[in-house]
Write a structure and sequence with these properties.
379 residues, Aldehyde Dehydrogenase, Chain A, domain 2, single chain, Aldehyde Dehydrogenase, Chain A, domain 1, alpha/beta, 6-stranded mixed β-sheet, 5-stranded parallel β-sheet
Length: 379
């Protein structure tokens, strides 16, 4: 379809009445039912083989999709995130990331619930699964078709920039998932007048207090979390800070983490887009610490850090912080939680729950459905 025809088609859809949320929810219900009945097992198995995640870090797609399209959860989110008086932005361009299979489709579903027309440019590794989800949604509810478009535009192709610029010009806002480099590039293409809704790659870590070092169960949970997620999620532990950790403390902690490893291949392929936040924070350690012996567990750095130094260290990169996993004793929780929230973190969790899906929680401190709408005043 030519650009002019595409624009005219979008405008015809825009002047119609807003598509009801119920159609999206019903389509999700149909998809979830078919998923539970095993209708997609063969197809999903083929898609899974092309994902870049291996070993214990591989995501089981059917479970992921079930979480993304659960209509009961989505209904609760509508009540929580969309107060009266909110209207769709109009046309949303979603620029997806590849660290979670189906993330692009999930972003589109959120845009649909907010009443928008949605254009998705998925990450190349996510295109098969997000494309599959969106096609099945349209099959379940054909009325969704004018509200969903997907364009696979390889970022390395010479035509990528003009094509992306064209899609941005058609949109009222751009929902962009990615690191600083991606967001900066989209900002330059979008210009000053285009609304950008940023879901950037984030830095998450675990902080172990002196007393927390004795919590064997929590440390075992931490080892399982690092191995299972492979540090590829924004909410994954990407660094472990140990309060006043001596060389002996760090050595024993590493041994204990290694002893808790599950059987299976090592996970040492964490995404570089996430790891650079770790590297940045490590480069800001107090003078002289660069000569200290370094410890790590499956590529996750273990760093000695005094509590009183943490705020200043983290504050320099506060926009990148997301989840903090705490291993401490009960009377320390309030103090440490307040410290890390003030430093910029948006979530405080136990290590075992850092990447757990919690229905209805905000994403990076914001509600997507609210971000995808605007306040409208009527006569």
């Amino acid at each position: 379809m030519k650009a002019k025809e595409f624009r005219e088609e979008i405008n015809r859809t825009l002047i119609r009445e807003n598509m009801t949320c119920e159609r999206t929810l019903k389509a999700c219900e149909v998809l979830l039912k078919r998923l539970s009945e095993g209708c997609y097992d063969a197809k999903l198995e083929k898609i899974r083989d092309f994902l870049p995640f291996t070993g214990n870090g591989k995501v089981y797609i059917s479970d992921e999709i079930s979480n993304l399209i659960n209509s009961d959860i989505l209904r609760e989110r509508l009540k929580k995130e969309l107060p009266p008086g909110r209207e769709p932005l109009g046309v949303l361009l979603h620029i997806g990331a590849g660290n979670v299979p189906g993330l692009g489709a999930y972003s589109v579903i959120e845009g649909l619930l907010a009443g928008n027309i949605n254009i998705l440019k998925p990450a190349s590794v996510d295109a098969p699964i997000s494309g599959f989800i969106l096609r099945e949604l349209v099959k379940a509810e054909p009325e969704l078709k004018p509200y969903i478009y997907m364009f696979e535009i390889p970022s390395t192709h010479a035509s990528a920039v003009p094509k992306l610029k064209e899609l941005i010009s058609l949109s009222d806002a751009v929902s962009v998932w990615g690191g600083d480099r991606t967001i900066k590039a989209v900002r330059e293409l979008a210009g000053a007048d285009k609304k950008l809704i940023e879901w950037g790659h984030k830095f998450s870590f675990v902080y172990i207090s002196r007393a927390g070092l004795k919590d064997r169960a929590a440390i075992k949970d931490l080892a399982k979390h690092i191995q299972d997620t492979g540090m590829r999620l924004c909410s994954s532990c990407q660094t472990v800070y140990v309060e006043g950790g001596s060389k002996e403390d760090m050595r024993l902690l590493r041994e204990e983490l290694n002893a808790s490893l599950k059987q299976g291949p090592d996970i040492k392929d964490a995404a570089e887009t996430l790891r650079r936040y770790t590297e940045k924070l490590m480069s800001e350690l107090p003078a002289g610490s660069g000569e200290e012996e370094r410890y790590d567990f499956l590529g996750c750095p273990l760093i000695s850090a005094d509590r009183e130094d943490m705020f200043e260290r983290l504050r320099a990169d506060s926009h990148s912080l997301q989840t903090v996993g705490l291993i401490c004793v009960g009377d320390e929780e309030e103090e440490l939680s307040r410290l890390f929230i003030r430093a910029g973190a948006t979530r405080i969790r136990r290590p075992s729950e850092m990447s757990a899906y919690i229905p209805g929680e905000a994403h990076d401190g914001k509600f997507p459905l609210y971000e995808y709408t605007k306040r409208a005043e009527y006569l």
